[in-house]
Each structure stands twice: as structure tokens, then as C-alpha cells.
Amino acid sequence: MAATSSALGRMLDSDLWWSFKRSPITVASAVVALICVLGAVLAPLLAPHDPFDVATLNLIDAFKPPAWAAEGDATYPLGSDDQGRDVLSAIMYGARVSLLVGVCAVAFSLVVGVAVGLLAGYAGGAVDGLLMRIADIQLTFPSILIALLVDGVARAALPPAVHDRIALFVVIFAIGISAWPQFARTVRGSTLVERNKEYVLAARVIGISQLRIMLTHVLPNVLGPVLVIATLGLSNAIISEATLSYLGVGVPQTQPSLGTLIRIGNDFLFSGEWWIAIFPGIALIVMVLSVNLLGDWLRDALNPRLR
To answer: Family per UniProt (predicted)?
Structure first.
């Protein structure tokens, strides 16, 4: 308990916390991001309806406008879609999938990118040249194109039933594998600086293994920029997932995300039922914008030149 109190006290006295509370935009972004995350995680408890429980759907309630409209129903605060599903509940459940894919894809690309960058920067020579050329080649292709390619190969190689069962993992892998070069290049540059410092040379002299030096000495000192890239990469991963789902190659229909909801609502956008697409789109914009603003603040807060 004392250790926890001490750690909390150090955090509240840190420059990072001082920078955070001095920025109203950052505080507001953190509050919005927290609301989005809690709304998604606690959707089964907070959502007015379960939009994916077929037994509770009623086609008579389809195309209900938002509650404040003339024909609105308070039971559906943001209206209902073509199947009678509550749009607000669908957004909360869809945000769960979008956040899950985004977080897992960023974690996957972070692990791969940090490992490759750490090895390339510390080993140098031919290993560095080979790994960075692979990263350079991948950076010439748009990330969404790589994700589409991976998903297309998975659809062609796997039976439809098998692909539907693992579609969520395929999307996570497709988005994650397209983003690792950013992590690798950043970690590689920081490792090139750290590997020639005195503490690394001293560790070599006393006989510590190269793997241990990389993991326990170099790695903790190159993670600062990685946190910034991961924060900004989260918003990019959420957008990539929404794009794939909008194109119909993302998560399965049984696990719709915000991109899927926007695609469904797009069919009714010009027939008067605008709320089916607009509100999921607004939710996606708010989520991505709040994460981006937090990433911008973290980048500036960790930059010693701006202190």
C-alpha cells in the first residue's frame, strides 16, 4: 500500500502530470476518450438494448427517428435502423469491436516493430541493412493496401466458414503487420545512439550477454518515442479497421464495428434515414480525434526541447 501511495505521489509530482493538467484541451480529450472507452467496455451494462439479440428486435420499430424528432421514441434516443436496432446501443457495441481491433493491432505491430528495430540498431551491419530495407519496401505501400492484401489472401486460402470464425484475428493481423515499420525505424534510430553509451560498454565489459543488454539496458531507454507512436497509431488502426469494414472486408456481420454501421447506414443516407450513418460516423470522429489530441500532447510532453 505504501509503495502504491509513493508511486502515485511521484506521478502527481512529475513534469508529465504538470503538463497534462496545464492543457485544457488535453484534459477534455482525456475525458472524452475515457467516456468512449467506458461506454464501449461497459456496453452490456449501459446500453439501452442488446442490438444483436434477434429475439428482442421488432421490425415495426425500424427507421424510428431520434427521440427529439417529431415521430421519435424515447426508447431509441438516437433512432433505430432498418432492422429495428437501437442506434445508440449499436454504436456502443460497435465501438467495442473497433477499440479491440485497434488496441490489439497496435500491440502486435509494437511488439514486432520494437523487436526488429532493437535487433537492427544493436547488431548493425548486414542485419541492420537487411531489416531496414524490408521496412523501406513495406513503407512504399499504403497500409490499407497491405491490409486488403492480407485479408484477400486469407479469404482465398481459407474456407468461408473457417475465415468467418477467425475474421477478427485476420483483421488484427492485417492492420498490425502494416504498421510495424514505423516502430522499427524509431527504435532502431534510438538504439544506434544508446548502444555506444558508457553504460552499455560497461555492461559488455563485465560479461553481460548481448540479449540481456538489449532487453534490460537499451530497451527501457528507447521506449519514450514508442509510446507516442503507439498512441497515434491507435487512431490510425481504428480508422483502418473502419475503412476495411466499410469496404465489406473487415470484421464479420455478427460482430459489426463502427465502420460496418456506417456502411449499413450509407444505404439509407439519401432516403431520409440520415441518423443510421451520421451518428456512428460522429462517434468514430470523436473517438479518433480525442486519441489523436492525446497523442499530440504526449509527443510534446516527452520532447525535452519543448520543456
So the answer is: Belongs to the binding-protein-dependent transport system permease family.
pLDDT tens, residue by residue, 127-168 = 999 999 999 888 888 888 888 888 888 888 888 778 778 888
**Across 2-11, 13-22, 98-107, 255-264, least confident range:** 2-11
271 vs 108: which has the higher pLDDT:
108
Q: What is the CATH number of the domain that holds 173?
A: 1.10.3720.10
C-alpha cell at 82: 432498418
| CA distances for 200 relative to 56, 114, 162, 196, 212, angstroms | 63, 18, 48, 7, 11
* Burial grade of 203 (CB within 10 A; 0-12, 13-18, 19 or more): middle
In a domain, 7, yes or no: no
> Counting every residue, how long is the chain?
307
* Distances from the Cα of 152 to the Cα of 60, 156, 257, angstroms: 38, 6, 19
Q: Would residue 37 count as lying in a domain?
A: yes
Residue 243, domain extent: 17-306
Domain count, the chain: 1
**Residue 4 falls inside a structural domain:** no
Q: If you average pLDDT over residues 274-279, what whole number do you get?
A: 91
Per-residue model confidence (pLDDT) at position 111: 93
**Domain-located, residue 9:** no
